[in-house]
Specification:
single chain; alpha/beta; Aconitase, domain 3; Aconitase, domain 4; 19 helices; 25 strands
């Protein structure tokens, strides 16, 4: 059997398993994070589940350890209360990335099985352990039963042949592999990596490579532990361990021989981790920010590489450098070794241990038009903000931060790139315009009709004055039309996307904005009327709430519940049931501009 097959068999009732088998496997470490953890709690409490073994169960706060987002702060409190009630261990905001904690605290070890709500739990392949990220229902089930079902994957073997070139880091190695295999060539495989040079890879290097197995589409990237890894894990667990090794006659679905000696320093171009190229193709690209950290490159060796580059140097003017160690232990080692002083003297911002850039919150995001070089594992649009993100090694990121443009650690200029305000403003403006165009509102809507054949529906009928103290738009919808005879239950029956048709002088009466916002609160898309009260009309237009006037609906044969289409630019109103149309009044230039702007402001 292969490594993955042996680990699964050892944790199931079967002596032998093969690809495609679906088996129940015992889970040695069952973890949930501040991301996903509250839903795990919800499933357990809703279904009155018990905890199988609190000694194998834990929570980690790593996604947003600063609690800078109110929802994360609340979620962390939900977990804390649950954990105290059940006696479950929490690695709180002072600890760092959960998958690294599983290794350093001895919860995961060679040959073990672990689950967490982190999609990069397969990082545990670095120590020859099975780790998987799963959804909150699976994790709740594991908390309760100690087991999950799993389909045995096919295995592939990658032989890295030849000598490792000087200057090629672990991050460069995995980016070269991504360039070679892409995002789906190894989809669903458990991948084992072998080679003479591979045996020399440090624990930190193995973590970097395994952590990007997700980006390659693999179930996991596994290494056979060397002496360094075994010594580390035995110290963490406090006991003697035996590694799981593939049999000499193990069967692999695919075997690849790859020339390690041909590998070069790489970067991933913005948008796709597997769009990796020789760094020469991206050299001299000006950057606005740089990030060192994440589960991929927040280890001590990464910090050492950055400190070596930054010592005696300054971050280029106009460039922001953020550094986040993966764990609190690494943070403390940086302090003891003088790295923190080097980082701060260079002009970097250093945060507490955690996921940082990947969480798009702990140390902030990048903005539209901003160019970032990062040691993270993902650079999908929106992952670290709305800017562009290049992926590279820690040494490359640090060197680029000093140079002001993408470069290698051995080619840092004596003088950094000049900060070009005009170029940056032009780039940002272009990015914002593109974003605005992408967010452009539709020029027509389609929806179910409420046909209310009444004139002079005033603002007290729409939103009674007894509710005027309500200022939160989310709370307004429930009171819509509750003072209009025959429609007191409108708010309970209305659905997002509905369209209201009325007769003359809709919205007459007071100037209350709630009479407009209550419809927005319910998700009503538009109101059609023969005429509107003057103040109501202004309020609706300024709030970017679509209102359309019509002269007559004769010929539409419109009935309650019909679906209609309203074109704001042409004014055409179409009954989609019979395809009959009439012309209403199209949006004026001012109304259309305010509508597309999302409101007067």
């Amino acid at each position: 059997m292969t490594i993955i097959e042996k680990i699964i068999a050892n944790h199931s009732k079967f002596d032998v398993v093969k690809p495609g088998d679906i088996v129940d496997i015992e889970i040695d470490a069952r973890a949930a994070r501040d991301f996903g953890g509250p839903n795990v709690v919800k499933h357990i409490e809703k279904n009155n589940l018990t905890i199988d073994d609190v000694n194998k169960t834990l929570f980690t706060f790593d996604t947003n350890p600063t609690g800078s987002d109110q929802k994360y702060a609340m979620n962390q409190q939900i977990i804390r209360l649950f954990a105290r009630k059940h006696g479950i261990k929490i690695f709180d905001i002072d600890n760092g990335i959960g998958t690294h904690t599983l290794i350093s605290e001895g919860y995961s070890y060679p040959g073990s099985t672990s689950l967490t709500t982190d999609s990069h739990a397969n990082i545990l392949g670095a120590i020859g352990s099975f780790g998987q990220g799963m959804g909150d229902k699976d994790i709740a089930a594991a908390f309760h039963t100690g087991k999950v079902w799993f389909k045995v994957p096919r295995s592939a073997k990658i032989n890295l042949n030849g000598k490792r070139p000087a200057g090629v880091t672990a991050k460069d190695i995995v980016l070269n592999l991504l360039n070679r295999f892409g995002a789906n060539s190894l989809l669903g495989y458990s991948v084992e990596i072998y080679g003479e040079e591979v045996d020399k890879f440090t624990l930190d290097e193995r973590i970097t490579i395994s952590s990007m197995g997700t980006e390659m589409g693999t179930i996991i990237v596994l290494f056979t532990p060397n002496k360094e890894v075994m010594d580390y894990c035995e110290a963490a667990t406090g006991r003697k361990l035996e590694p799981v090794v593939a049999d000499a006659d193990a069967e692999y679905a695919e075997i690849f021989d790859v020339d390690l000696s041909s590998f070069v320093p790489m970067v991933s171009l913005p948008g796709k981790p597997h769009d990796a190229v020789n760094i020469l193709e991206a050299k001299k690209v000006k950057i606005d920010s740089a990030f060192v950290g994440s589960c991929t490159n927040g280890r001590m060796e990464d910090m050492q590489a950055v400190a070596k580059v930054l010592e005696g140097k300054k971050v280029a003017p106009g460039v922001v450098l953020k550094i986040v160690p993966a764990t609190n232990d690494i943070w403390n080692q940086c302090l003891e070794n003088g790295f923190m002083k080097i980082f701060k003297n260079a002009g970097a911002m250093v945060s507490n241990a955690g996921c940082a850039g990947c969480a798009a919150g702990q140390v902030g995001q990048n903005g539209p038009g901003e160019i970032t070089i990062s040691t993270g594992n993902r650079n999908f649009p929106g992952k670290q903000g709305k800017g562009s993100v290049y992926l590279a090694s820690p040494a490359t990121v640090a060197a680029s931060a000093v140079a002001g443009y993408i470069t290698t650690y051995d080619d840092i200029p004596d003088e950094p790139a000049v900060f070009d305000m005009e170029e940056k403003l032009e780039r940002m403006e272009k990015a914002i315009n593109i974003e605005t165009q992408a967010d452009k509102k539709p020029s027509f809507v389609e929806g179910r009709v409420w046909y209310i054949k009444e004139d002079n529906i005033d603002t007290d009928m729409i939103f009674h004055n007894r509710y005027l103290t309500i200022t939160d738009i989310k709370e307004m919808g429930q009171y819509t039309f509750d003072n209009l005879e025959g429609y007191e239950d409108f708010a309970k029956k209305a659905k997002p996307g509905d369209i209201v048709i009325v007769l003359k002088n809709f919205g007459s009466g007071s100037s209350r904005q709630q009479a407009v916002d209550c419809f927005k609160s319910l998700g009503v898309q538009a109101i059609l009327a023969e005429s509107f009260g003057a103040i109501y009309e202004r309020n609706a237009i300024n709030a970017a709430f679509p209102i359309v006037t019509y002269k007559s609906l004769e010929g539409l044969d419109i009935q309650d519940g019909d679906k209609i289409k309203v074109d704001f630019e042409s004014g055409e109103i179409t009954n989609l049931k019979n395809d009959k149309s009439v012309n209403g009044e199209n949006f004026s230039e001012v109304q259309l501009e305010i509508y597309q702007n999302g409101g007067l402001f």
